Amino acid sequence: MKRTKMFALLALSCWGSVVQAEPVTLANAWQQLQQVSDKLAADGEQVNAAQAEQQGAKDLYLPQLSIEGTYTRLEKPLELDLTKLNPLASMDLSTLPAQYAAIFASIPQSMFVTPFTEQEVYNASLRAMWPIYTGGQITAAQAIREAQVAEKQQQHELTRRELFTQLIDRYYAVDVSQSLVVTQQQLVDSLTTHYQHALKMEQQGQIAKVELLNAEVALDDAKVTLGSATRQMEMAQIALRRLLHEPSADAVSPMFVLDTPPSLPQVTQLTLAQHPALKLLHSKEEQAKGLIDMENGKYKPTVYLYGNYTLYDDDSLVAEMTPDWMVGVGVRVPLISRDGRSGKVLAAKSALLQARYTKAQTTQDLSLLVDQSYRQMQQAAEEISSLNTSRKLAQENLRLRELAFNQGLATSVERVDAELKLSAVNTRQLAAKYRYMQAYAQLMAVSGQLDDFIGYSKQQEMKDAR
């Protein structure tokens, strides 16, 4: 069938209806899609961003170190006037002996004034703050970042599996549409031969004019259907090429039917054990738990170490009195806050319950999806098998009608009807094979067995090559 299809497509290409494309196996197409998909690359960058934020969260354990500089202009310099301090402030010069009173009176007032600062004050220092207990807020923040990385990774895997099923749809759509073109071309060729035969018989008076017209109408309808099938094939090829970012690509891996279907319990178990949607929701749960821990931590005290080292100051007396460095321990106890901590805790608990309910519903949906895909695959396989018998019957019926028509024992309508029935059986069987591939791909994608699908495809390629 594969050689027949290739020869027929080559014949069509001679008409200019089909452009020869570069053959691509399913395995190569899947490998290329993972490299060129923009959506997969975008999800990969989300994973990188989440990992970078997780790495940044590790710095929360480190001390905070900063250089701070200040410039301050005072209303007036800070000064100390000794004459305003006891005992000088309460001293009455008139009670002193004359010689002492004269001495005090001769001293300038400015000599009793001690400047502590200038009017403009400059300062630069190195400051450090190191939290040593935050009520679990740092640990919770890091747990949230770790869960966010897991979420993005599972989203990336979900996108990867969605791309796989999309590739299967488009890849085998090309195969099916090509086979339909071949089937329809064979019908056109057969009806063309029949029309030419009927034309000779009508000219010889062996059949009526209506018989010839019937053959001609059937041939015209088949040509119209062939043109439609060719357009559909071209659109399927365009869709595959756009997906693979290739100017030319043609599907060469054949469709197949498994000799032994996969085990439904095993597929269900694999799906519910490791499906990325369930893991993604688990990471949502972990994030909600982290938010609860973080908000609860805000009710607890914060203990921290702090230090300061003066890098530069002016030459004032206050600067000389101030030590160059200092270290200490601080504690901050929240009493009343306006950041809505209690509301945030309730919101985080609601988010946790939401993730759990969604996870339970998703588990049911995935189990249903597995059952549906498995039964769709079985139904398609049964239809393919039953159509094999129908195809043999249609072929034998066409052979007998052909003989009967040639001997004048059957009409052209009967002969054309037999031809159309065979074409319809071939078309139905192709559609059943396509549905089988879609259902099997969905089953393998939902259970994470993408490599198994690719492996079966390679095995079928080797069988056809023999």
Question: How is this fold's topology laid out?
Answer:
Blueprint: H1 2-15, E1 23-24, H2 26-36, H3 38-57, E2 64-73, E3 79-81, H4 98-106, E4 113-115, E5 120-133, H5 137-203, H6 209-244, E6 250-251, H7 264-274, H8 276-297, E7 302-313, H9 317-321, E8 325-332, H10 341-406, H11 412-446, H12 450-465
- Number of domains as seen in the coordinates: 2
Number of helices: 12
CATH superfamily of the largest domain: Outer membrane efflux proteins (OEP)
Rounded to an integer, what's the Rg over CA atoms?
44 Å
Flag low-confidence runs: 10-19
Strand order of the largest sheet: 2-5-7-8
Determine the fraction of residues in helical runs and give it as a percent range: 55-70%
Oligomeric organization of the protein chains: single chain
| Shape label | rod-shaped
- In N-to-C order, the SSE pattern is HEHHEEHEEHHEHHEHEHHH
- In the CATH hierarchy, the architecture of the largest domain is Up-down Bundle
Distance between the termini: 13 Å
* Main pleated-sheet profile: 4 strands, antiparallel
Structural class: alpha+beta
CATH class category of the largest domain:
Mainly Alpha
Overall mean pLDDT:
85
What is the count of β-strands? 8
Subcellular location: Cell outer membrane
Main location: membrane
Keywords: Cell outer membrane, Membrane, Signal, Transmembrane, Transmembrane beta strand, Transport
Signal peptide: 1-21
